């Protein structure tokens, strides 16, 4: 029976990590996998997480099962940051559950949409590759539109045309901030328009917020999510703490549902619980418990927010330096200064990407996506020079 299973392609980015690790060149640069790096190239555990983990070790008195919803203290502690401190439950219309990472959040959000009757989902491309994989695995029809124009700005016309065709049986997936892989985000005016269009068409929004705080700040990065939620009766929100708390492998995430009438919320969430039970039963506890301890403690919260500010400032410094360089050969670097988060896309051919790797030890995804946090004040000049060489 198992011989029926054909070989699947290896994950391209994970294969790239292996190639990078095997490269003996001292000045090699890893711009592949999406993790934050310091100016010395490290991806350290946050001091706030270390403090929370120490407290957890001391105070945790049981590891008995919690339930498919996970740590609801964690789920609720995040809500003021996502939905606003003034009315984090939108008058009792929003609640959620813990998921294994933001991936679990996206998976559950889309599975809930499907179970509720959604058959088609719209999404701007390019996108995080796992979005399309999750839709395909759930048997949803994917309708795509262009996320950004060649000039490196959001393609609002494409989005308008998509939403004009979409209807009440459809969902639309939008990145809340720090678009992966382009770094090209909607402006406030764009979000205002998008919120109105989604509401007018009756499309179900699925909002993926995986990088809150890595763009312009925790509050600013929530603008789009909050704007859409204020305009529509129902929505699903997938959240990841794996970047903004540096928890990657500990898999910390959540899914939230907003309903029109608070009386419907329990029924919706009970479907989330049933879907989780059939998939992973319960989410891993440790990371979410550590995040909860941080958010329950004012001093630890401040420590975490300060660490997040340092990360964001460093990425903005790298972006500013790239923009300041203006161009590298035929590549215009100026747009990178106005983009957000870990990623940007460089308009390189596959030959140029390969040449950067083989001749210069610079590793990036086959799409031309770079992790700007892989650049440091020590390697950025080499990067710009090598980019100029291959693209001249
Ligand atoms: N959504 C987007 C847009 C992402 O880029 C990612 C991670 N790369 C996720 C969701 C999921 O994050 P994780 O499962 O690692 O929490």
From TrEMBL:
One of its GO terms (cellular component) is cytosol. Residues 27-385 form the Aminotransferase class I/classII large domain. Its cofactor is pyridoxal 5'-phosphate. It holds the Pfam family Aminotran_1_2. The keyword Transferase applies. Transmembrane segments: none annotated. Keywords: Aminotransferase, Pyridoxal phosphate, Transferase. GO terms for molecular function: identical protein binding; L-aspartate:2-oxoglutarate aminotransferase activity; L-tyrosine-2-oxoglutarate transaminase activity; pyridoxal phosphate binding. GO terms for biological process: L-phenylalanine biosynthetic process from chorismate via phenylpyruvate. Homodimer. Belongs to the class-I pyridoxal-phosphate-dependent aminotransferase family. This is Aromatic amino acid aminotransferase. It comes from Novosphingobium arvoryzae.
């Amino acid at each position: 029976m198992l011989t029926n299973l054909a070989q699947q392609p290896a994950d391209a980015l994970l294969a790239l990590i292996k190639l990078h690790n095997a490269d003996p060149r001292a000045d090699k640069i890893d711009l592949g996998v999406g993790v934050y790096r310091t100016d010395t190239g490290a991806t350290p555990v946050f001091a706030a997480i270390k403090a929370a983990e120490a407290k957890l070790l001391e105070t945790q008195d049981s590891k008995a099962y919690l339930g498919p919803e996970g740590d609801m203290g964690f789920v609720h502690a995040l809500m003021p940051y996502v939905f606003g401190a003034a009315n984090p439950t939108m008058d009792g219309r929003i609640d959620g559950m813990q998921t294994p990472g933001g991936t679990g959040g996206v998976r559950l959000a889309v599975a809930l949409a499907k179970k509720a009757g959604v058959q088609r989902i719209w999404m701007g491309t390019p996108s995080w590759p796992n979005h399309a994989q999750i839709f395909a695995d759930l048997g949803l029809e994917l309708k795509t539109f262009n996320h950004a124009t060649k000039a490196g700005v959001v393609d609002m016309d494409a989005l308008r045309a998509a939403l004009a065709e979409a209807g009440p049986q459809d969902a639309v997936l939008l990145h809340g901030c720090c678009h992966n892989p382009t770094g090209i985000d909607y402006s406030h005016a764009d979000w205002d328009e998008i919120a109105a269009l989604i509401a007018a068409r009756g499309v179900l929004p699925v909002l993926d917020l995986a990088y809150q705080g890595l763009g312009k700040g925790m509050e600013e990065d929530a603008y789009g999510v909050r704007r859409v939620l204020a305009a529509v009766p129902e929505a699903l929100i997938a959240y990841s703490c794996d970047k903004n708390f540096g928890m990657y492998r500990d898999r910390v995430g959540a899914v939230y549902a907003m309903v029109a009438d608070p009386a419907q919320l329990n029924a919706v969430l009970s479907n989330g619980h049933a879907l989780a039970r059939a998939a992973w039963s319960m989410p891993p506890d440790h990371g979410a418990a550590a995040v909860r301890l941080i958010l329950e403690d004012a001093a630890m919260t401040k420590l975490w927010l300060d660490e997040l500010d340092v990360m964001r400032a460093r990425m903005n410094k790298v972006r500013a330096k790239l923009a300041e360089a203006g161009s590298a050969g035929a590549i215009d670097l100026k747009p990178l200064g106005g983009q957000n988060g870990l990623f940007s896309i460089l308009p390189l051919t596959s030959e140029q990407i390969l040449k950067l790797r083989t001749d210069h030890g610079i590793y990036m995804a086959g799409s031309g996506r770079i992790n700007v946090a892989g650049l440091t004040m020590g390697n950025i000049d080499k990067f710009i020079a090598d980019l100029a060489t291959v693209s001249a």
